[in-house]
Automatic annotation (TrEMBL), chains A, B:
This is Dipeptidase. It comes from the Bacteria. Keywords: Hydrolase, Metal-binding, Protease. Residues 199-357 form the Peptidase M20 dimerisation domain. One of its GO terms (molecular function) is peptidase activity. The keyword Hydrolase applies. Gene3D superfamilies: 3.30.70.360, Zn peptidases. GO terms for biological process: proteolysis. InterPro entries: Bact_exopeptidase_dim_dom, Cyt/Met_Dipeptidase, Peptidase_M20, Peptidase_M20_dimer. SUPFAM superfamilies: Bacterial exopeptidase dimerisation domain, Zn-dependent exopeptidases. The keyword NADP does not apply. It comes from Croceimicrobium hydrocarbonivorans. Signal peptide: none annotated.
Length: 463, 463
């Protein structure tokens, strides 16, 4: 057994305990009520990096939440790996659907995780995966096997669009200088079929408000004579997609990168079972854009989803009211080479254009993110591939993910660096959902794999 | 000055104070959290009837909230007027739009009410209008001018569909025996143009739930591949009306009573100013069924309004989620001779039929109510017309209202009695809305007019 594996074996219980401490802090960046908890989490991350052997640990202030920086330079002549992760989490609601408290981590066995999984908000996204890198550093440090230099950049605003990361990166290009960026904030196909994410969707997120009468009205006295903002909003949203689930916003598909048949065939080879997929979600049928497979709809095609809608009376019983307004949160996932700013503008222009004269419409852009595609032939990808081979005994397959990590495009632009998306989560981990969890197998496997990446990357760079 | 008018003048401040006490109790029948307050209000109404001179005051239990009964039989050979009203109120939300507390009544002057108006939930609908009858009884009693027998039936479930009133009425036909029913729970055109409501719309109210995946999903990993319950719900609701705002539910218009051109011409004569109407609601335009005027859309045509909608993330910031479900409360106003039970069935059948295979749909009927048309040539209507002539110095015009008082149809069926809808509210009173209010002028005018009705009704019946 290698010294690294031995060290991991001897300390695995403690590694879980330390992660639990991090998971207990509700670092919800979307809700300002949790500001102190987010800040507390930054401190905890910094402290854990110090303990793991990092040097120059700093909590770097930004106009928003701070970014935790740390590094360990073993030899300036060696290549440098910049690790990115985030310490903030999604809001936990709906709370009533959690089996156990979102911020009181527990271990439960599941069908997919017979060795047990850690249930807590952020267990997988991204505290659990980020913390693997902290523990991997400890392993390499304690076993004297750190094969190249390492830098950490852990932010606290990923779940709200990394609004100040660009500000920070552009001001610290020298500090962040590296040869590759390594990120574990994605998933793999299954515990017995490792994969590396080579593509991500971008994001455009807007909030819309439709206002009708200047006050709530009695639906008997005014019903039929005054436009109902909820009815109008449902009409407007419905009109944004046609019967083939094609998005009707003029110019929306203009820049969409169409995949070649060869690429689509390659995608179709990835293991996927539609019946299991439907069964896992308790769906009698899937639904999506005509002419594309479920895998394609979820990765290489843009989307338009209403993430939230509200207006009028939502309480017990029946209230006969025409509300003064109705609101919705709408997000569009983007694919290469759609540009979030442009899509948001197209949406806003179109949404305002289709509004009937009987209402007022407001469109408020939230955050956006660029889509991304990574190469599969550079030292970074090859090192990740070999590292997973070492730990899984299998060559990982490259896959496109439907999720968004807006900042990988930003890193490329600001730092001229490619990001390697070596994630260890599973789609079934329920990130952004109640009962989010992360397999102990995956957590340990990550801590085992990361040092292999460092070893192979150093070697490949010195070739 | 008549003895009645004199008594009113001498006691008007107290009459307002006593109403304030009733308005301070939050008798919200739709929300079970206010159960004790609703019951407390029943007691207060009973006590006020006793003080006003009523006999046989009873709080009659029902499977739901109790009904307050009282009577004063001056002479069995005289005709009897049965007064109906309700002591429950609508929920006050949205609370943040109230200028003063909904259950702390205050008097403020407004453009339409230069003498001042009482601001409070229930000020007009219906505590204020119901209490006019209690005070009118006191006036007639104290001045020895009660011209015929009177019975009171004040319920506590009107705002939730009077679910147990039918149960009560069918069991107490003898107790409730009368010659006419008098109700003040409607409005008039303006303080200088009195009117009497001769028609009401019916109501069918349903709650719908669209369920997609068995849990909230990450909109990046699943977006585009799984039907989003909110998108589906907006599509389904939008499809319930065509571009001409015609309702698309098969059979919906089957029983709709079409008015003759003559009737429509008569309606068009009622004073109405579209610009003022739009200005009062801050609307750049009205919207409704093609081929009908605003007045017609709001009274003689059926409607379909979403009274509330909710699903997904409604908090601060952005959450990229595909929710597991979305819900809406939908009400349809009905016109003679549409039948609520039948319409609810048609809705449910259609809504389930148009649901895509990718979701599950539940339709839960709330309450319903039959539409109603009252005659204008019987003693009841003529007595009301003469009574308003006496107090306003103007003959009131008959108008159709868009609102619903489901129980007037029930009274006709169970008691064989017509209801006279002599209301003193105004459309601008904001009933069911924040800042509901009721003009002092209207409150006093009602107390002045009701005894005239008794006098004229007794006379007309003895002709």
């Amino acid at each position: 057994m290698s010294s690294q594996k031995e060290y991991l074996e001897q300390n695995k219980e403690r590694f879980v305990e330390e992660l639990f401490e991090l998971l207990r802090i509700p670092s919800i960046s979307a809700d300002s009520a949790y500001k102190n908890d987010v800040l507390k989490t930054a401190d905890a991350v910094a402290e854990s990096l110090r303990k793991a052997g990092a040097e120059n640990v700093e909590i770097c202030e930004t106009p928003g939440y701070p970014i935790v920086y740390a590094d360990k330079i073993v030899d300036p002549s060696l290549p440098t790996v910049l690790v990115y992760g985030h310490y903030d989490v999604q809001p936990p609601d709906p709370l009533d659907l959690w089996t156990t408290e979102p911020f009181e981590p527990v271990i439960r066995k599941t069908e997919i995780h017979p060795d047990g999984a850690i249930f807590a908000r952020g267990a997988c996204d991204d505290k659990g995966q980020m913390f693997m890198h902290v523990k991997a550093l400890e392993v390499m440090n304690q076993t004297g096997t750190l094969a190249c230099n390492v830098k950490f950049m852990i932010e606290g605003e990923e779940e709200v669009g990394s609004e100040n990361l660009g500000w920070f990166v552009s001001r610290n290009q020298e500090k962040l200088a590296a040869d590759v960026i390594l990120i574990s904030d994605t998933g793999m196909i299954a515990n017995d079929s490792p994969s590396i994410t080579t593509g991500l969707r971008g994001l455009s997120y807007v909030e819309v408000k439709v206002t009708g009468p200047n006050r709530d009205l009695h639906s008997g006295l005014y019903g039929g004579a005054v436009a109902n903002p909820i009815n109008v909003l449902t009409n407007m949203i419905a009109s944004l997609q046609d019967d083939n689930k094609h998005i009707t916003i003029p110019g929306f598909y203009e820049d969409v990168q169409e995949l070649s048949d060869a690429e689509r065939e390659a995608m179709a080879k990835a293991p996927f079972n539609l019946d299991n997929y439907k069964k896992a979600l308790d769906l009698s049928d899937v639904d999506g854009e005509l002419g594309y497979s479920t895998m394609e709809r979820a990765s290489i095609r843009p989307t338009l989803d209403v993430n939230g809608i509200w207006g009028g009376y939502q309480g017990e019983g029946a209230k006969t009211v025409i509300p003064s307004w109705a609101k919705a949160k709408i997000s569009m996932r983007l694919v290469p080479h759609q540009e979030p700013g442009k899509i948001t503008e197209l949406f806003q222009k179109h949404f305002e254009a289709i509004a009937p004269k009987s209402v007022k419409v407001e469109v408020t852009p939230h955050h956006g993110g660029l889509p991304y595609v990574s190469p599969t032939d550079d030292p970074g990808y090859r090192a990740a591939s070999k590292a997973m081979e070492d730990s899984f005994g299998k060559t990982p397959v490259p896959v496109r993910s439907g999720g968004s990590i807006p900042i990988v495009a930003l890193f490329e632009k600001e730092l001229g660096l490619k990001s390697i998306l070596m994630g260890f989560g599973l789609d079934s981990d329920a990130i952004h959902s109640p009962n989010e969890h992360y397999g102990l197998f995956n957590y340990y496997k990550g801590i085992e794999t990361i040092p292999h990446f460092f070893k192979h990357f150093a070697a490949l760079k010195s070739e």
